[in-house]
Amino acid sequence: MSDAISRISPAADSPNDVKTNSPARVLIASLVGTTIEFFDFYVYATAAVLVFPHLFFPASDPTSAMLQSFATFSIAFFARPVGALIFGHFGDRIGRKATLVAALMTMGLSTVLIGLLPGYESVGVLAPLLLALCRFGQGLGLGGEWGGAVLLATENAPPEKRSWYAMFPQLGAPIGFILSAGFFLILSETMTKDTFMSYGWRIPFVASLALVAVGLYVRLNITETPEFQKALDKQERVAVPITEILRSHKRSLVLGTFVAVATFVLFYLMTVFTLSWGTTKLGYSREQFLVVQLVGVVFFGLTIPIAGLLSDRFSRRRVLILTTIGIAVFGLFYSTLLEGGIVGAFACSIIGLALMGFTYGPIGAALAAPFPTGVRYTGASMTFNLASIFGASLAPFIATSLATSYSLTYVGYYLAAAAAISLLCIVLSGHEEI
Fold first, then answer.
1. d(CA 59, CA 66)
2. Pick from 300, 388, 287, 279: nearest CA to 351
3. Range of the structural domain that residue 199 is part of
4. pLDDT mean across residues, the chain
5. In terms of domains, do 215 and 256 share one?
6. Number of domains in the chain
7. Which Gene3D superfamilies match (predicted)?
8. Buried b vs exposed e over 231-254: b needs ≥16 C-beta within 10 Å?
9. What is the DSSP string of 44-61?
10. Would you say 150 and 363 are in contact if contact means Cβ atoms under 8 Å apart?
11. Which whole number is the average pLDDT over 188-205?
């Protein structure tokens, strides 16, 4: 893998190479991968509920099939830290550009292959095994994608615009949601259920090939980031980046992980849990609640660039502190809003996802900032993906358990508690670290 990556790496370019990347090319190159990431998340999550239990697992036990389908969904969470280690290592040793190309190809091809897999009736137990393998491939690619995309943006940014540049990869979340939701809305309006189950569900997976092609074209035509090139020229590369992080940057790794926990808890409550609870316990149809979420996602997309601008003007730390306090307060009113009829549901979605934009916009630059160039790819990737395990993987399960055993109010308390933890870690991080 090292040889394959090095062949497309510009790391060996002369120190006198003065080629630079245009801002537009940098921002498109950093945005396209995260757009695919979230497009994949929503498409896979929807298919894991509607399609995979029926096509990739034995039909004799529907409940067991659904649980097994959700199990394949969770595989990516455990693969992501592995991907962060692998791609982070090469990103810090060989270069950002080449590693981002490899991560995008791993992620994109795995997604496309899912749309081409045979079902259980055709190949038996091989079907779920292939599905799990492709899902693991997605997780590997995703583990290396986010950190590299953020560094591609920030290491090409002017010092006074780091947060503005770093928010572009974050726009992949709302764009990916809108693209995937739009796909499924169009398919539901133009296809019968039988047609959708036969081949319609495959279209979004295969169509992601177009995004991958655009991403590869842009990324193959960029040069290495100036900061990494300087590190090469000064021979500042680290032999084993993760070892250096564990030896010299454990504090940044731990604090950064929990700084981002509230971000992940909020996101998965506002998407996975709220959709599930709204369409079951609150009686909304999937189409109704999808519209509610789409309106909220518009505000998510609008507040990300606002947060980037404010972070460059007033500091990321200040924006994150105020936003995290806002998340805690929102948690106290979460159940009241969600259970307040259709108007309350819209208000809950808009406020929650707007706050998500304000915390998600600056978090990329904040997590990358504490680490020196030689270990920054590994450090940022590990921090983000560890935060996803603590904040994302268990959030829907914990929220469902709390709401079922106690009440929806306790889900809000859970969100407020996560915000309190993140707020404490932001304060402990200090001005210089985020």
1. 10
2. 300
3. 23-224
4. 89
5. no
6. 2
7. MFS general substrate transporter like domains
8. bbeeeebbeebbebbeeebeebbe
9. HHHHHHHTHHHHSS-TT-
10. no
11. 88
